[in-house]
Amino acid sequence: MAPLKVTKVLCIGAGYVGGPTCAVIALKCPHITVTIADINKARIDAWNSLDFNLPIYEPGLEDVVRQCRGRNLFFSTDVVKGIKEADLIFVSVNTPTKKSGVGAGFAADLNYVELATRQIAEVATTSKIVVEKSTVPCRTAESMRTILEANSKPNCRFDILSNPEFLAEGTAISDLFNPDRVLIGSLQTTEGKDACASLAAIYANWVPKENILTVGLWSSELSKLAANAMLAQRISSVNALSAICEATGANIDEVAHAVGYDSRMGPKFLKASVGFGGSCFQKDILNLVYLSESLHLPEVASYWRQVVEMNEYQKRRFSKRVVDTLFNTITGKQITVLGFAFKADTGDTRESAAITLIRDFLSERAFVNVYDPKVEESQIWYDLAEACPTMTLDNIKKQVKIHKSALEASKNAEAVVIATEWKEFKEIDWAEVYKHMKKPAFVFDGRLLVDADALSKIGFKVATIGRPSI
Ligand SMILES: NC(=O)c1ccc[n+]([C@@H]2O[C@H](COP(=O)([O-])OP(=O)(O)OC[C@H]3O[C@@H](n4cnc5c(N)ncnc54)[C@H](O)[C@@H]3O)[C@@H](O)[C@H]2O)c1
């Protein structure tokens, strides 16, 4: 039999991955009807909102949705209908770190993947290609296959593929338009290879064939964890060096530039910072740690664990630098935190370094002023309440104020801390900010974003990651 020509795609999960990924499939494949379904009604309502007030912010995303929504792209809470109609189903649900039970704090919580898989088995009356898009531990596809086969109806076969997503938030749309590679893992059987060809044919509508890599199922699953672990490792390596720079007078930007000039290294992803965040790096490394431990490879586990520990150290080290520099106490002082998202060009706050910094400042009883151009106020309160379980939200609100601009947030502050590399923070009228701050006025640049010398000329005392203070 020739590989199935897919005409109806369902994506289960309308989040940061499912939404942009399948919207781009709809844009690039007008002959395919794409439905993105989610149990979260508020999220689906936002995807369907008349004013395109989408639930996630990504540059270029709104334009894609405007072109396809109602044409061949639909958002729905009706997962059952979607399953029945689709030839190919992406499972793009969340896989957070487990909070309790075996593997708590390390292993991925596969409950959402399992529930979605069981629902596919229960509802499907025709054969489907089921694509694991969520990031999952090795051999999850095997478990999905077992569940599907044990619950399937006669004449209903399921082929499982692994197709991990490599997009980065903030650049999701350009990453999806021009991916470095698309990776598809399948069983190496005739049926598995046919299913793989069906999915590859979708991507071939816009991705050059040589960039579509096909491998075995488990290589595909492990490649995603490996890619994230190695990217995060690069950040932790450069951050470890930034501590040496601060102590010696070397400049981390110069060191990273020199190192990155080596063609074996390349210049990307060598920026020191207050630490990596986001929903993936930490979770995926911890997953790899758990996997290594389960495979009785303790040395491998502790190697990868150190990448996360270095990240925690970097955040701690930065908050401590703020306290030390402000004459060893920030109690009762006004500290302004610019940026709450985990990186620029996203409204996502999961594992954001800003949360850890603010938690540390609150524990020192400082007053914190926050400004972020994209993060909703309700999200900031939600994250701070979660990060500070010993404080009531009312008490948090007595110590934290959320502002509408960087300038407003900086008034009467003793220090401004840059936690996210939003471009607009580079373009602030820093002389104006300086005028309205208490003196001496400090800037702590956790993202190597601003021109430290120019700020110093204005009168600021500037502390930058990976450089001695000026
Ligand atoms: N965010 C990233 O940058 C990124 C990049 C690559 C891979 N990933 C991986 O992709 C997966 C999804 O990540 P995300 O950031 O999109 O998560 P997310 O939390 O933004 O979205 C997941 C969505 O799935 C929905 N969902 C859960 N169970 C469901 C069910 N049974 N039926 C219908 N909807 C259901 C949730 O309501 C939620 O809206 C994760 O495994 C993640 O590790 C994320």
From TrEMBL:
What positions does UniProt annotate as the active site of this protein?
A: 280 (nucleophile)
SMART domains, alphabetically? Answer: UDPG_MGDP_dh_C (SM00984)
What Gene3D superfamilies does the database record attribute to this sequence? Cytochrome c1, transmembrane anchor, C-terminal, NAD(P)-binding Rossmann-like Domain
Domain of life of the native organism: Eukaryota
EC no.? 1.1.1.22
Q: Which GO terms describe its molecular function?
A: NAD binding; UDP-glucose 6-dehydrogenase activity
Annotated substrate binding lies at: 165-169, 224-228, 264, 271-277, 342-343, 447
A Gene Ontology biological process annotation? glycosaminoglycan biosynthetic process
Q: In which pathway does it act?
A: Nucleotide-sugar biosynthesis; UDP-alpha-D-glucuronate biosynthesis; UDP-alpha-D-glucuronate from UDP-alpha-D-glucose: step 1/1
Q: Catalytic activity annotated for this protein?
A: UDP-alpha-D-glucose + 2 NAD(+) + H2O = UDP-alpha-D-glucuronate + 2 NADH + 3 H(+)
The UniProt keyword set, sorted, is: NAD, Oxidoreductase
Q: Which Pfam families match?
A: UDPG_MGDP_dh, UDPG_MGDP_dh_C, UDPG_MGDP_dh_N
Chain ranges of the UDP-glucose/GDP-mannose dehydrogenase C-terminal domain: 336-452
Q: Which InterPro entries match?
A: 6-PGluconate_DH-like_C_sf (IPR008927), NAD(P)-bd_dom_sf (IPR036291), UDP-Glc/GDP-Man (IPR017476), UDP-Glc/GDP-Man_DH_C (IPR014027), UDP-Glc/GDP-Man_DH_C_sf (IPR036220), UDP-Glc/GDP-Man_DH_dimer (IPR014026), UDP-Glc/GDP-Man_DH_N (IPR001732), UDPglc_DH_euk (IPR028356)
- Which SUPFAM superfamilies would you find in this protein's record? 6-phosphogluconate dehydrogenase C-terminal domain-like, NAD(P)-binding Rossmann-fold domains, UDP-glucose/GDP-mannose dehydrogenase C-terminal domain
**Gene Ontology cellular component?**
nucleus
Q: Where does NAD(+) bind?
A: 13-18, 38, 43, 93-97, 134-135, 169, 280-283, 350
Could you say which protein family the record assigns here?
Belongs to the UDP-glucose/GDP-mannose dehydrogenase family.
Classification via NCBIfam families: NDP-sugDHase
Name-wise, this protein is UDP-glucose 6-dehydrogenase
Q: Which organism is the protein's source? A: Mycena pura
